[in-house]
Design brief:
Protein name: D-alanine aminotransferase
CATH topology of the largest domain: D-amino Acid Aminotransferase, Chain A, domain 2
Enzyme class: transferase
Oligomer: single chain
Family: Belongs to the class-IV pyridoxal-phosphate-dependent aminotransferase family.
Largest sheet: 9 strands, mixed
Radius of gyration: 19 Å
Helix content: 25-40%
CATH superfamily of the largest domain: D-amino Acid Aminotransferase, subunit A, domain 2
Mean pLDDT: 97
Structural class: alpha+beta
InterPro entries: Aminotrans_IV, Aminotrans_IV_CS, Aminotransferase-like, BCAT-like_C, BCAT-like_N, Class-IV_PLP-Dep_Aminotrnsfr, D_amino_transT
Bound molecules: N-(5'-phosphopyridoxyl)-D-alanine
Strand content: 25-35%
Keywords: Aminotransferase, Pyridoxal phosphate, Transferase
Length: 277
């Protein structure tokens, strides 16, 4: 069963609980993580919690709870939900205080939900999804997993409005990442992805895929590439916690590979699913 948690209390997910003067929904003043749980075990939990704290520090959010406290809270929530395969969303905001821009003297708010996993059908993964190129209109600190997702959701909606699934963001002529994923191209049996910088989120799935590529001895090169180079690639795929490894078969109407999942992409997601079995 889906469950929610707000500042110390487990509640039904649909219970209205957030006060108006809450920094998260007034300012987007907070950070978050999405963690996928396979067979009762949160995937790369430590890495997610580490990134959550890095994001918090980057926005000067003083979280009194320790890494262990947060990991325990996540474990306890999963157990309470009774769900074996689920998605955990956790956010930490600068708390509840009468609205003003300056930091309040208030404890942080920690809220989370545990919901059933939305499984991707095998056929979709075999056929691949479609994407569009979209200007990256975000700010200078995209390495922070901040609640401010307006440019991301506008880009994703624009993709959906023309029948696409993901928006591949382009800044100064180079691909950065997806609106909610990291982006890769495969050329001559080699994987290319944008190097880590303040311009992209250091994806946890990206980390997993890099390890898998090493394991399979597939070269993994972190190097910027242009939309034209991506269109010339043998394969294109995206990764994220909820998409895992997802092939992209069309970009702006151009067929990649033969419009289906490519060989390297398939190797990567098969290995990924082997690891979580
Ligand atoms: N999004 N880049 C962006 C902008 C993202 O929002 C995400 C994930 C990723 C991939 O990160 P990871 O592999 O750690 O999930 C990259 C999550 C899933 C979301 O906002 O729902």
């Amino acid at each position: 069963m889906s469950i929610g948690y707000v500042n110390g209390e487990f509640i039904p997910v649909d219970k209205p609980v957030i006060p108006i003067d809450e920094r998260g929904h007034q300012f987007g003043d907070g950070v978050y993580e999405v963690i996928r749980v396979y067979h009762g075990k949160p995937f790369m939990l430590e890495e997610h919690v580490q990134r959550l704290f890095k994001s918090a520090i980057a926005i000067k959010l003083n979280v009194e709870q320790s890494h262990e406290d947060i990991q325990q809270l996540i474990d306890e929530s999963i157990e309470k939900s009774g769900l074996a395969d689920c998605d955990v969303y956790i956010q930490i905001t600068r708390g509840i205080s009468p609205r003003q821009h300056l930091f309040p003297d208030a404890p942080v708010s920690i809220t989370l939900t545990v919901k059933p996993m939305r499984v991707t059908e095998e056929a979709i993964r075999e056929n691949g999804k479609t994407a569009i190129f979209h200007e990256d209109e975000r700010w200078a600190n995209c390495y922070i997993k901040s609640l401010n997702l307006l440019p991301n959701i506008l880009a994703k909606q624009n993709a959906q409005d023309v029948g696409g699934y993901e928006a591949i963001l382009v800044k100064d002529g180079f691909v950065t990442e997806g609106s909610s994923s990291n982006v890769y191209m495969v050329r001559d049996q080699t994987i290319y992805t944008t190097p880590l910088s303040k311009q992209i989120l250091p994806g946890i799935t990206r980390m997993a895929v890099k390890n898998i590529a090493d394991m399979l001895e597939i070269p993994f090169i972190e190097k910027k590439f242009t939309p034209d180079e991506l269109l010339q690639a043998d394969e294109v795929f995206i990764t994220s916690t909820t998409n895992e490894v997802m092939p992209i078969a069309y970009v702006d109407g151009n067929k990649i590979n033969d419009g289906a999942s490519g060989e390297i992409t398939r190797l990567l997601y098969r290995k990924f699913f082997e690891l979580i079995e």
